[in-house]
Amino acid sequence: MSEQATAIETRAISKSFPGVLALDEVSVRIAKGSCHALVGENGAGKSTLGKIISGLIAPDKGEILLYGQEVRFSGPLQAIQAGVGMVHQELVFCENLSVAENLCLDAPPTRGPFVDHAEMLRRAKKWLGSIQADVDPSAKVGDLPISKQQLVQIAGAVGRGARILIFDEPTSSLSQRETQVLFDQIRQLLSSGVTCVYVSHRMDEIFTLCDKVTVLRDGKVVDTSPIEALDRDSLVRKMIGRAIEVPTAQQSHREPGKVLLQVENFTSAGKFTAVNFSVRAGEILGLAGLVGAGRTEIAEAIFGLDPAVTGSVEINGKQAQRRNPQTCLKMGLGLVPEDRKRQGLILGMNARENISLPTLPELSIAGFVQGSRERSLASQSFVQMRVKAPSIESSTLGLSGGNQQKLVIAKWLAAHCDILLLDEPTRGVDVGAKAEIHELIRKLAQDGKSVLVISSELPELLILSTRIIAIREGSIVGEVPAAHATEEVLMRMMTGLS
To answer: How many percent of the chain have pLDDT more than 90?
Structure first.
């Protein structure tokens, strides 16, 4: 490949963080106008490489060449000025500001000494319109669902006219319709000569969009191949060094026992209406629905996070009166939320402190936490969840997205919950970690626990669930045993097709 055909190249890039060698002499060459995938397990170094290319962090050593010329970015603003932008997996916004204010935060338009709010809104509308994002530019970002926040971030990168765009798990919170809009936008960018670097754990996306794949493992490049030279199995083996055997739903379940969770006539104005279902011991109930259908709202209300909800909930055969998270936890109910960053973890705490949070009363005597018991609990959870980190004292903020997700699940396992509500349990998780989490969910059911799984990935629901209920516009519209379910059947129920 000639230098003229190369948009960006890294030569022997290395980067270390405390206790971790994130990148070890990584060399990658990405062709101009191509969609080049970076794949690997969580912690393999994909996001770190993307952040180095986009100027967010500096490498310890190595070179970056942009169209054949060496560059050194002092920060992301300098990178975007050079035509390199990044769409991050973890959303980074000032949530108290509007969409327009966030999009123009780096260079707000002015009229004299004052900010020109009219021009700010005009610019935001133009950028949002460029990717067909149905988002109000005057809305506060913190009031938007994750899917629309993700679209705002994409609009900001595309609107600034970057010629090289790094997408780090851009569809992790998008609906199928929003994902298709993004794919159409990426294809349009590619046709205009923009180079895309695409980081994703979703095999379908990689084989749909990308023309070349670089595989990272433990911070090293293990392979770069054209997409036509690979299939899914061979790509997974390169990523994790082994094949993954996926059991069918029929192979992995035991006979359901008594009802552990009963929800009756559950209603919350504007969110969901007359929801009724039960989950038995040893059962995995899948909850399918489009983004915005009310799936997350139902789970949060069951856990006591919606004071306006009406109806009843029985947990372990007892009515949950005056329901709140503390009461639900005492009754044996735990919730793994959709957004691990804002709701599942306290990023300023270390891994040990996050794991022990729900069980601190049990670990304390006379109000003092017994350090040895807390460390033992955290260490057991580390081993059980196969968390990749130097130690239980590692910073939660410094862990990869997949390992952060493992910590959220570990927290509730440590609390010995009999009923687990899992909202997007594998969002942003690589294929190896996803298989481990799936294996854990099956084992929880086999051990007699009740599990409710909410997922935007229909194949995930199909291989995990005992049965699946579909939600549309806040109401249950159908139920089907997993043995008789297909993606087409579920999509018809979710979208209202006959």
So the answer is: 43
